[in-house]
């Protein structure tokens, strides 16, 4: 059973939707929860947790405001002495086709989703390293993993969070910090008007939040991309095919194009443990004996 008693969690964008249900379910398992959002919703969710017998405090402010994020972390440490869990959930949408999208809307979505997660993670990172324990969840999306029409900005930000997770999981491993991604499907304020009402009713955010509990538990995995929605759960992986070797100095682009079917074959594909594996794989196909990379 997942027991979060004694743990302190920060959930961003928790004034409603997914963030609210994440906060409620974390509190129900015993965590003390900092409910972050821009407005009164954060205070309402904090009161809801307290009324149910839990411990919570609201922290108003944008994840893009470095001073506000730092203050939230400092106040949490002053009140509760530690931070064990960070759920980077805050986000916005500015959907348009790429041809019609302004650069300002592109930058804004990147700033909130990617840099907001970076800012919050950076603010808790040293605390988690010092206490040799941390659980961080980045909120990615199917739009980043596989693309969605009209969401170039959102998809770029969400895929960037996967890259951030991959590296932070490596860097945090020896400090007991586990970092994962959640790819949710839920009916929230952000998805209102996109899906029919009947489908939205099936996508209750409360059906996603159990995935967060699994990703922040003491025995949580690390470097997982967990998809969740309507009670369904899947793992996504960024895989590499066995590929081909094209001889020549340089290799022939014509041969590469001609052998594309062999290159694309999924038979024997792998999930590399770090970026070096790609170079290692390619050099070995060329006939070199390449040593394993020793982690820093």
Task: Give short descriptive properties of this protein.
alpha/beta, Rossmann fold, 11 helices, 8 strands
Outline the structure in words.
It is a single chain. The protein has 296 residues and is of the alpha/beta class. It folds into two domains: 8-236, 3-Layer(aba) Sandwich (Rossmann fold); 239-296, no CATH class. The protein contains eleven helices and eight strands. The chain has helices at residues 17-28, 40-51, 66-80, 103-131, 142-145, 152-172, 197-202, 209-216, 253-258, 260-264, 276-285, and strands spanning 8-11, 32-37, 56-60, 85-88, 134-139, 177-184, 225-229, 232-236. The protein has an eight-stranded mixed sheet, with helices on both faces. The longest helix has 29 residues, at 103-131. The relative contact order is 0.11.
Break the fold down into its secondary structure elements and pairings.
Elements: E1 8-11, H1 17-28, E2 32-37, H2 40-51, E3 56-60, H3 66-80, E4 85-88, H4 103-131, E5 134-139, H5 142-145, H6 152-172, E6 177-184, H7 197-202, H8 209-216, E7 225-229, E8 232-236, H9 253-258, H10 260-264, H11 276-285
Parallel strand pairs: 1-2, 1-4, 2-3, 4-5, 5-6, 6-7
Antiparallel strand pairs: 7-8
